[in-house]
Amino acid sequence: MSPLGQNVADFQSGLFAGQNGISMLTFPFRGKEVSFPGAAIKDFDPAQHIHPKKITLMDRFAQFAVAAASQAYADSGLALGPEEAMRTGTIIGTGVGGQGTVEESYIKLFSADGSGRVHPFTVPRLMANAGASHISMTLGLTGPAFTVASACASALHAMGTTLHLLRTGFIDRAITGGAESCLTIGTLKGWEALRVMAPDLCRPFSANRAGLVLGEGAAMFVLEREEDAKARGAKIYARFAGFGMSADGKDLTSPDVDGAARALTLALEDAGLAPKDIDYVNAHGTGTRINDATETAALKKALGARATAIPVSSSKSMFGHALGAAGALEMMASVLAVREDFAPPTINYLGADPECDLEVVPNVGRKHVIRAALNNSFAFGGLNAVLVVTKA
After folding, report:
1. What is the DSSP letter of 95?
2. What is the DSSP string of 312-365?
3. 17: part of which helix (H) or strand (E)?
4. Who's near 97: CB < 8 A, 6+ residues apart?
5. pLDDT digits (tens, 9 = 90+) for 134-166
6. Which residues does 168 contact at the CB level (< 8 Å), separation at least 6?
7. Which residues are known catalytic residues?
8. Which domains does the chain have, with CATH numbers?
9. How far apart are CA 390 and CA 371, in angstroms?
10. Lower Cβ count inside 10 Å, N or C end of the chain?
């Protein structure tokens, strides 16, 4: 569920073609209208995925979560009985949860023309775990279900946690990924106050880049042990080969080269791979001056000369920064890149920045044999997560 498409086929088509999912969004604010660039999912109809009686019980982020999870579950071919359902987890990430519900409630309470009363299901709608809970209820999954909230690393932390639960045998399979819907005036004004938002487009790793653009969406995966997937004849997209994470332990908002590089190195070690084995990087690539330069330095520290010899792209240039869902959308991009041997573009690219001397794929994607890919998420709070994806 993304600004590039509301299913995998449309998402892949938009991603590979370099489709721009960013536009100017207009909001009422103090008697006038204000505009921000954002990557919104347009023409979303929750009734295509959710029973009509359930829709009003869900914030938009939870609707995205259920819509993506339902598609993933249907595509997996699973048909679970009660015992299998108890061995199936629901583990997703979100950064801010029901932000639309929070803002709607504040408007009703504090605006001059507000009703002064909030929706009776305000608390269940805004809670961060609502997406995971609704997925488990919709699909009848009775194994462990919970949400990871670690800002922009939320989805990758959720997926890495799922990997470890599978390896230990605690579960047999899981729905995992991330969901976010944060395009509200309050959220946008908050990010504006940080002075990291671009005035128009997101230009990761580019000269004259001016900041990030927020987006929304969800991506969900069925993750299971390879031998189980093969035994049931499942359609396997890719192999989740390794996971690394670290904390900078230094600054709340300023990224650290050493922390990010450590997560990259740990992910490679977990996958049993060396830098020479990596053929593509789907970067965190927010489009801010400091984040892109720091990620460049971290990749060079972890991969050595290999860092400047392989294609690197930032999908945020197309579908914005979906905060807690960003890593899941970018995991989808990485899986498709590996499966199709195609390096998606970084669009809006105006030219090389000496601080970002990577092999950025500028504006147009290209065919490229990809045996293994890295997917990076580096969050506020100094929280770093990296996944390794290889061919199945």
Report:
1. S
2. EE-THHHH-B-GGGHHHHHHHHHHHHHHHTEE--BTT--SB-GGG-SEE-BSS-
3. helix 8-17
4. 59, 61, 126, 127, 128, 129, 130, 131, 147, 149
5. 999 999 999 999 999 999 999 999 999 999 999
6. none
7. 152, 284, 321
8. 8-231 (3.40.47.10), 239-390 (3.40.47.10)
9. 6
10. C
